[in-house]
């Protein structure tokens, strides 16, 4: 069941969505006892779903007995998956009040309900006004609204020319914003790849005057200038502008805006500009706060990525601040694991390997661990041993156990996840146990697509002790 469509979809639900789906399943008519039983069986394993109890045959027999056929179990899983899809569609529709109302307006006009039409049009105009400064929602919804008003067959085209003008104006703004989003993505990729290529679209859009009221358009424009190291742009002013206006953007794109800033900082740090290290905390705090606003909590992955990245660049005071302020927002059942891993990363990067070992031992006692965190723990155990110049036989034994674990999990977690770990084991053994050709190993590390802890391996190869 690890690779079932049901589990794949279930994994994507946020903690808030799981709570809502719980209520949805309990109150929706025509849910069979078997569907509810399967859901209640799966829920405790959310979000990792990596327990052996979830193997298809084991889950089937445990829940319904051997008489319950594989075909019946697959059908039941498919039905529950469809229930989750139905729930997600319903949630999305609830969010999109404007489109629902616009559809109602169309129905009222078709039925000649003039009083209803007048009331709904006024309601929608007020809703558009509530979007405030020009955002993606404003442009797209205005375009739909005025398009519907003008092109409806009951509309007098002569008297409604302003509808056409408004629709056309919002179409142009929506097109410009969409273009800017694409170009921002392209230019960001070019920056990461150290390519100076500029798209033709950029030169085209550069001629357009951005109006002050087009706030969302301006946020993406500022990011493009920042990525280009434009003389009229700087990180602080771009960050401040986005901090002040990001809530006007769609929820999913709010995260994207700060991820652009975060990855820009990391690209600068990788070039050796360590002045950007102190900026990491503010960006991660914004990302964590958005997660709390949107989901009511912070996922373990998001929390640990913040700690890991900040400590990698040796900003330990900022890491402590994240630990103090955000650990309580990780789901309670995951807090012990998250906190132990956070301190493991902290002390490993600080070079206090004996303290890191203590947290590694605590992690080993935890009953539930996500697959990707188990890989991190096993890899860090090897890395600590290398850093402390530990016993070669013990190191070899750990490598063998790690490799066996990865090969056992391959069918459940895919080739790429396992390949990254296997490549790491092979290279760390060459680094620590074998006579090595440093130049060859560096080239090998750089060309591998799937490899965990790549930067650490390269650092060790530059260490005179390993030359």
What does it look like?
- This protein has helices at residues 5-11, 15-27, 33-42, 56-64, 70-95, 97-110, 114-130, 136-151, 161-192, 200-206, 215-227, 235-245, 251-270, 280-295, 300-312, 316-326, 332-350, 353-364, 371-387, 392-413, 415-432, 438-447, 454-462.
- The protein is mostly helical and 467 residues long.
- Among the domains are: 5-95, no CATH class; 273-369, no CATH class; 374-467, no CATH class.
- The longest helix is centred in the middle third of the chain and has 32 residues, at 161-192.
- It is globular and about 85 Å long.
Strand content: under 5%
| Alpha-beta classification | mainly alpha
Measured between the Cα atoms of the first and last residue, the distance is 46 Å
| Stretches with pLDDT under 50, minimum 5 residues | none
Taking all residues together, what is the mean pLDDT?
83
Which percent bin holds the helix content?
Answer: over 70%
Radius of gyration: 27 Å
Counted beta strands? 0
List keywords for this structure.
single chain; 467 residues; mainly alpha; 23 helices; globular
Task: Outline the secondary-structure elements.
Blueprint: H1 5-11, H2 15-27, H3 33-42, H4 56-64, H5 70-95, H6 97-110, H7 114-130, H8 136-151, H9 161-192, H10 200-206, H11 215-227, H12 235-245, H13 251-270, H14 280-295, H15 300-312, H16 316-326, H17 332-350, H18 353-364, H19 371-387, H20 392-413, H21 415-432, H22 438-447, H23 454-462
Quick recap:
The protein has 467 residues and is mostly helical. 73% of the residues lie in helices and 0% in strands.
